[in-house]
Design brief:
417 residues; alpha/beta
């Protein structure tokens, strides 16, 4: 994250390429795609590629009073090139600041409406005298450019897929988007070392236009996606928040809920809304993919959101590590969630003689283990999955999974047909 933070990213351009190049050092099999500007993408069109070399506002003494080299949030993202002198009043129409947070630089964009501007602290804005200013934004908008995104496929024993998606378009915002990139990268490294039933597809894409472009190019691929998560805002403070998929009760929605329940960490689960991150594209009615959004405090609900305060100090390593662990557990639930058939369904089988029950009755020792065995036996009717048993019993998924493995090993269960 320290290497990625200084890079000036946008929805297109060399900042995204540089970011993906660094990710390739951690994920050598990452494939980088270039989609030419002007390419139709569903109801959209891939925009001209934006790059910026420098930008500044100078006073009449030639001093830079706003300087892109000091912080890349200082420039309105996707600003058109400009060179000239402006009065204070003329310049003010192109300045963005936060009166309620006077010490912070806001992050602002103008992706699809040609414009130019500068972002600065409100405190600095108030100190600009009524004078003339020289303005330069040395940027390009290239209609012969491209939109860039990265994609990694970890093949499993099945063609059915789990999609993990994150944004790679925001400049120098540590929680938004870099935390999602970091968690997705290290989750991919973890899963690459595991045996996998599912294939896992990781996409590192610019927001909105990236997922729309990816979907437009992968109409066959999406038919294999059985579960999906958008990873974002995972390094800042606040409790975990999960926004369900449009389906509302997809396996991934249920798996996240059970893992969060079992973690005993404070959390919130929210219903789907057609506004937010790229889950709204994956969950659009034509695709209706089972993709939810996993974050800590959601976008727009913390004071540092889209400001210069979303820096590396705002992101905590322990929060990122905790997020990777939760994602890993969710993947484990998806991987191991099976249905079984009870081979001794008439009455309760004698578990003691199979070494599964305690030898002396009457106490409460190992009560959860005993109940896990009984719940699995009772609901192994080829209709209830392990996830359903964990939900109904209130016992941890890990304990239910362990009980099923023990019953399978002693011949009391068989895999459902």
């Amino acid at each position: 994250m320290e290497r990625l933070f200084p890079i000036c990213r946008s929805i297109t351009g060399n900042g995204v390429r540089e970011t993906l190049s660094i990710l390739r050092e951690y994920l050598p099999e990452l494939v980088i795609h270039e989609v030419p500007s002007g390419t139709p993408a569903l109801d959209w069109t891939v925009p001209a590629e934006w790059n910026i070399r420098d930008a500044w506002v100078k006073n009449e003494q030639g001093e830079r009073v706003i300087d892109f080299q000091q912080h890349n949030l200082h420039v309105l993202n996707y600003s058109t090139p400009v060179q000239g002198w402006f009065t204070r009043a003329e310049l003010d129409e192109h300045l963005f600041s936060l009166p309620d947070q006077p010490d912070l630089i806001p992050y602002r964009t103008s992706y699809y409406q040609p414009n130019w501007g500068f972002c600065l602290t409100h405190q600095a804005r108030l100190t600009l005298p009524d004078s003339r200013y020289e303005v330069c934004i040395d940027s390009t908008l290239d209609s012969a450019g491209a939109l860039t995104y990265g994609e990694l496929l970890l093949p499993g024993s099945s063609e059915e897929e789990v999609l993990i998606s994150c944004h790679c378009c925001h400049p120098s915002l540590a929680n938004d988007n870099l935390s999602g990139i970091a968690v997705a990268t290290f989750l991919a490294r973890h899963l690459a070392e595991q045996s996998r039933q599912y294939s896992y597809r990781f996409v590192f894409i610019p927001g909105t236009i990236g997922s729309i472009t990816w979907l437009s190019r992968n109409t066959e691929t999406v038919q294999h996606i059985q579960h999906g998560l958008v990873a974002t805002l995972l390094g800042g403070p606040g409790n975990f928040t999960y926004k369900k998929s449009r389906r509302g009760a997809a396996d991934v929605d249920r798996a996240v809920a059970v893992v969060l329940r079992d973690s005993r960490l404070p959390h919130e689960i929210r219903a789907f809304s057609p506004y937010g991150y790229d889950e709204r594209q994956y969950c659009s009615p034509g695709f209706n993919l089972p993709v939810g959004c996993f974050s800590r405090t959601p976008f727009g609900e913390f004071a540092e959101y889209h400001t210069s305060a979303d820096n590396l100090d705002f992101v905590r390593p322990e929060h990122l590590s905790q997020a990777i662990d939760i994602f890993s557990q969710v993947c484990n639930v998806l991987e191991t969630n099976r249905r079984y058939r009870n081979l001794s369904p008439y009455g309760e089988p004698q578990l003691g003689r199979r070494g599964l029950y305690k030898g002396v009755g009457g106490g409460t020792e190992g009560a959860d283990w005993q109940m896990a065995l009984l719940w699995v036996l009772n609901l192994s009717d080829e209709e209830h999955s392990l996830l359903a048993i964990a939900e109904q019993s209130g016992l941890s998924y890990g304990l239910i999974e362990k009980a099923a493995a023990a019953l399978l090993a002693c011949g009391l269960l068989a895999h459902a047909a």
